[in-house]
Specification:
- This protein is an alpha/beta fold.
- It folds into 2 domains: 3-89 and 429-438, Alpha-Beta Plaits; 92-231 and 303-392, Malonyl-Coenzyme A Acyl Carrier Protein, domain 2 (3-Layer(aba) Sandwich).
- The chain is 43% helix and 15% strand.
- The protein has 19 helices and 12 strands.
- It has helices at 26-39, 44-52, 68-77, 108-113, 115-130, 136-140, 153-157, 170-190, 204-211, 217-233, 246-249, 274-286, 309-319, 340-343, 346-354, 359-369, 382-387, 407-421, 427-430, and strands at residues 3-8, 14-20, 59-65, 92-96, 197-200, 237-242, 258-264, 267-273, 291-294, 329-330, 373-377, 433-438.
- A hairpin with a 2-residue loop joins β7 (258-264) and β8 (267-273).
- α1 (26-39) packs antiparallel against α3 (68-77), α5 (115-130) runs antiparallel to α8 (170-190) and α13 packs antiparallel against α15 (346-354).
- It is globular.
Length: 439
Amino acid sequence: MTESLIRTATHAAELLVWSAATADALPMARQAVLARLEASPDSLPELARELRQGPHGAYRGALACADVESGVAALRRGRNLEGKHPAARRPVAFLLSGVGDQFPGMAADLYESEPVFRDAVDSCCAVLETEGCDLRELLVRPVQQPGSPGNDLRSMVRARQVPQGPLATTRLGQPGVFVVEYALAQLVRGWGVEPAAMIGYSLGEYVAACLAGVMSLPDALRLVWWRAQRIERLPPGGMLAVALPRDEIGPWLGADVDVAAVTSPFQTVVGGPVAAVTGLERRLADAGVACQRVGAHHGFHTRSMEPLGTELTEWVRANVRLAGPRIPYVSNVTGTWITDAEATDPAYWAQHLTRTVELMSGLGALWRDVDPVAIELGPGDGLSSYARHHPACDRIRLPRVQPGLAPATGLLTSLGRLWVAGLEIDWTRFTNDCPRSDS
């Protein structure tokens, strides 16, 4: 028997906001929040809801905290919580990362605390289970959360020490990341945050295509799962992040290594067969050029993927209904806005697998043509780390989130900082007072 219940979600973290009419008055508004929290430490959720209802001034501050103790400490310090400029309404861009930061349990806290996120994960996992891919427990079983990398060059090129477990494999890691990113997008859209544009990195473009209506959710999931299994059958390969710009790396590559991704003005990712990548790594080290292996078992976005190209094209043609995008997003292949003709061409999705990810060009198109504030939706902040190195990026466009935050706190920190910059959020939907049906 099914019983309908009214249920208020208990957030894994709370978002406190405050504001003032002038910059000088903003610290006083923060002190008032601190005083209330210290006076009534048991009322953190109620205080957070009250503060979000406003009214709000032009100068804003925000803090995401998992408990009263950390909230009080952060409010007392007051560092990096408040905007130096008045909020200005700007469009929002979703940044959708590729694989690399995934880990078991990466959906656990949001799955427990956010009904919209949980429903989206369940819907995705139900489709995948019919295809023989059982991910749910791997994604939602709580585990100790790893820290996130920084955004300097050393962090970008070092191996990320993330205990990925079974998600290190292509066949589970890729669909796992897709599920989490899609569910995160549904969650923030449920809060009234709609993207004016999107950019996905590698696998992230599949999430962007699904959100834009290029392919349905079931079709996208089946395609990602089919593709991941076929990739895993290809000969092993490797990838290397190199601290050289694209126009300087060509003479180093040799016959078998290709540029896989252009991830910053001073870093290029290359890939190819294991022996060729190992040889390149040795030569770069001997020459004193900084480089680091990327945690990949294949040479993604290189000629190493070409044996799968024709089969992928034909599978998409036979099994996926494609449509033009309803939300603009940037193509990895061209580094500019995807066209209807590209999105609906089955061969495009093979090109996406075998060609260079033109990330820097794509970010340039995003910053230039849309001028958005941006939020990364994924298990880490890897794409944000790359995006901040684009010359057109600044703290207003893409505020940095402190490394080491749990996923829920990190998401709310991003949301809060974008609200400080001017993002409009439907706070009534954010509280998640909604009907639930439980058996």
